[in-house]
Write a structure and sequence with these properties.
Length: 165
């Protein structure tokens, strides 16, 4: 029997998880490469890498339309995974109103969804309905991980006409 020091086991586990994650992403990207249309490929694989779909993640460009379209596409296929690579994504407000959707970033320190200057939305990411007739209780199996939601409150004042806070 081989005995590893405790730290070595943690390193082996971390490396194993990274290798599994990396190989899964490579497999999915290879599957996506079968079509010339990235949206069609993503739908077929039920995996949307928003950078491959055109998001910039430069902190300036409004990436809301691409990420929102990926969320709607995942919802239309009864769930799927949306991957947001490292970067700072300027957001004017995202809505997640579907079951089975998983949104994953590359890590909370490197993937940031930041509320854009001039945004009228009170939230970076709204899950479910937030007004009367709240349907949020009907959604299940939603996952958001590996990213930071930055409301940018020091630069963007809260809207006065939005009651979703």
């Amino acid at each position: 029997m081989v005995v590893f020091p405790k730290r070595s086991i943690y390193r082996l586990v971390a490396v194993g998880v990274l290798l599994i994650t990396a190989s899964s992403l490579i497999y999915i990207k290879n599957q996506m490469g079968q079509s010339s249309n990235p949206w069609e490929s993503a739908r077929n694989a039920r995996f949307w890498d928003i950078r491959l779909l055109g998001a910039k993640g430069d902190g300036i460009t409004d990436d809301t339309p691409i990420i929102q379209e990926a969320i709607w596409a995942a919802a239309a296929t009864n769930g799927g995974r949306i991957y947001i690579p490292a970067g700072t994504y300027s957001i004017t407000g995202l809505q997640l109103r579907a079951s089975g959707v998983s949104i994953a970033g590359a890590g909370a320190a490197v993937t940031i969804l930041r509320r854009a200057l001039g945004s009228k939305a009170a939230n970076v990411l709204e899950v479910g309905e937030t007004a009367l007739g709240n349907d949020a209780n009907y959604y299940e199996k939603i996952s958001v991980s590996g990213l930071t939601l930055d409301g940018n409150r020091h630069a963007v004042p809260p809207p006065k006409d939005d009651l979703t806070d």
